[in-house]
Amino acid sequence: MNKFKLIFSFLPYKMASIGAGSCLIAIVIITVVSVGGRYIFSLDSVPGGFNMIESILFPLLVFFGLPLAHKEGTFPKLDILFDKIPLKVSQLLDFLVSLIEALVYLILIWFMLKFSVNSFASGRSVQIGVSYFPVWPIAFISVFSFLVMYFQMIVGVYKIIKNQLCRLF
Known about the structure:
This protein is mostly helical. It is built from five helices and two strands, in the order H-H-H-H-E-E-H.
C-alpha cells in the first residue's frame, strides 16, 4: 500500500508539470509563430495550428492537469452544508458523497474506455491542416487521467473509513 500511495502521490504533479506544461508551451509557440507569420509575412506559418491547439493540445492540457486539481482540492465542494450539521452526520455524509463520486467516476471511466477502444478500432481521426491524426492517444490519456483521479478517490474513501467511520461505530 505504501508503494501505491507513493506512486499516486507524485504522479499528478508529474502529469501536470511535464504533460500539461509541455502542452502549454506548445500552445504558446504555435500561437506566437502563427500570429507572427500571419501579420509579418502574410502567410499561415503553422497550417492547421488552430485545429492542433483545439483538438489535441488543449484537451491534453486539461486531462494532464485534472488529477492535480483533484488532489489539491480545487474542485468546487459544498462545504457550507457540512459546517451546519452535527459532526457525526457530516462525517457520514462525507463518506457517502465520496463513495457516490467514486462510483460516478468509475462509470465515466468505463464509457471513456469504451470510446477509446472504439476510436482505436475504427481509426477515428481529426483533420489538422491537410493531414489526419488519430484520436485514440488523446482518448487513452483521458482515461489514464481519470483513473489517477479515481485511485485518489479510493484512497480518500479508505482514509475516511479508517479515520472517521471507525470512530462513529
